[in-house]
Design goal:
The protein has about 220 residues and is α/β, with parallel strands linked by helices. It is built from eight helices and five strands; from the N terminus they run βαβααβααβααβα. The longest helix has 25 residues. It is globular, with a radius of gyration of 17 Å. It binds thymidine-5'-diphosphate (TYD). Thymidine-5'-diphosphate binds next to helix 4.
């Protein structure tokens, strides 16, 4: 049999959000390793991307000049990628009971395109209802750090995509946008101080995952 055993629980979905260079990928690897040690199947993924179709769309989004896409076109590409990512990667993994850890998800659209960007929150919320519906994360870890720290790390690893090129004022708005999202949805979101060493950040993440989802 291919599908989940009858009555199997849908796997948990955890997204990691925050500005560029706050250390999401390091923390995702650490949490994935920890959950696997406990016998949990884990799928790690990322947005934009996370499925072959969504990765093809990602290439259109991250390369080229920062004004390549209109705000609406950019948001539609993000959500087109997200629709494919949910259909092909996230939902099938959860259906067989795997935990899904995603480097960014829909809160990035609300922060970058909706709150900090030109599209506006209502438009992003409408796309969210259409594409994500009830399939969003159970828990969202928001890694928060002053933008100088994030941009320094992102620059150090050679990251310089269309979004990082938008400048510090935009990055600061993005940071505040994530904090606002967390304040609106405290049941789903946990803000963690990411201006510390990786071990301290990891300890807070493990605590949040244990307390909120009973995992790890
Ligand atoms: P990426 O290289 O994944 O950045 P990071 O390593 O910081 O996560 O590039 C993705 C960029 O796309 C990132 O700057 C944030 C942006 N983004 C949006 O603007 N909206 C979205 O919905 C998503 C998923 C990402």
């Amino acid at each position: 049999m291919n599908g989940p055993a009858a009555g199997a629980r849908r796997g948990p979905f955890i997204s990691f959000e925050g500005g560029d260079g706050v250390g999401k990928s390091t923390q995702i690897s650490r949490l994935a390793a920890r959950l696997r040690e406990n016998g949990q199947e884990v799928v790690t993924t990322r947005e934009p991307g996370g499925s072959p179709g969504a990765e093809a769309i990602r290439a259109l989004l991250v390369s080229g000049p920062s004004d390549r896409w209109s705000p609406m076109a950019e948001a539609l590409l993000m959500f087109a990628a997200r629709a494919d990512h949910l259909e092909k990667t996230v939902n099938p993994a959860r259906a067989r009971g795997a935990a899904v850890l995603s480097d960014r998800f829909a809160d990035s659209s609300m922060a970058y395109q909706g709150i900090a960007g030109a599209l506006g929150e209502d438009q992003v919320a409408a796309l969210h209802r259409l594409v994500v519906g009830e399939d969003g994360p159970d828990l969202t870890i928001i890694l928060d750090a002053p933008i100088e720290i994030g941009l320094g790390r992102a620059g150090a690893r050679g990251g310089n995509n269309r979004f990082e090129a938008k400048g510090p004022a935009y990055q600061e708005k993005v940071r505040q946008a994530f904090l606002e999202i967390a304040a609106r949805e405290p049941g789903r979101c946990v803000v963690i101080d990411a201006a510390r060493d990786a071990d301290a950040i990891e300890a807070d993440i493990v605590r949040a995952v244990q307390q909120r989802l009973g995992l790890g």
